[in-house]
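Quick log. Single chain, no ligands specified.
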Amino acid sequence: MNQVIVITGLAQGMGLEAAKMLAARGATIAGFDVDPEGIESLKTELDKVGARHHLVPLDITDRPGILKFRDTVLKEFERVDTVLSNVGIGFFGPFEEVVLEDALRCLEINVIGAAAIFQAFLPSMRERRAGKLIAMSSLVGQVPFPFESIYSASKFAIEGLVLSLRYEVEPFGIHVALIEPAQVSTAFAAKIHTLPPEGSPYRDRARRFIERDEELIKSAPNPVEAAEKMVKIILQDKPPLHNQVDFMSTFFLVLNKYLPRPIRDRILLKHMDIQV
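-> predicted structure:
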């Protein structure tokens, strides 16, 4: 395989494992992350398998930095076949108590970050009339969960962005896809699981949600298992528009499609142990 693949947020978790798997199959990996130590560690691992790569520490909100990264990648490797937008942060809390400045940062990273990396490489793909743009979305991009209003909003936005973009770029031979996991057994959720303060009317239900979520994470696919499915999607010439990597996301998306809303709501509230 001689694909050039750009991955954002590849210093840990699914992004890291996917990068290593793709490199082992002969792909050239270009990418960035805010974690400089993670970047250096990945460089060492890719060198061991003789993979070509261009990895730099970079923040997804650094627009000039992204353009510089793009120019370097295209100069060094002449083309990019696939862009995987994998950068994202979580956000948890009752909407009434959300600090909107923090919410804006989540939307900036999760939504505009994906838009920035896609926009950077889209012109070269359009000129070649070939390429794939793949965004890491989530189950909550279609099935909103309580206490994740801002995170859900960011993933709904990603879904809308990609679905709209598809109409614009398919005539130029560019394919788009979404990857929509529910849970992967990483520290991603634990980093954001903070109880509302004492006296909050949402505290008890949020506590039950957190406990249930952390229980479910224990049986969720680990990053390697999730990355194996991601790699299969990435390597397809024409990947499906919607893709899941775990049973829970597939299950809830089927319910969301076919069941009346009141029944779906009861199932969700019971599943997350937050009935009133």
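The chain has one domain: 4-271.
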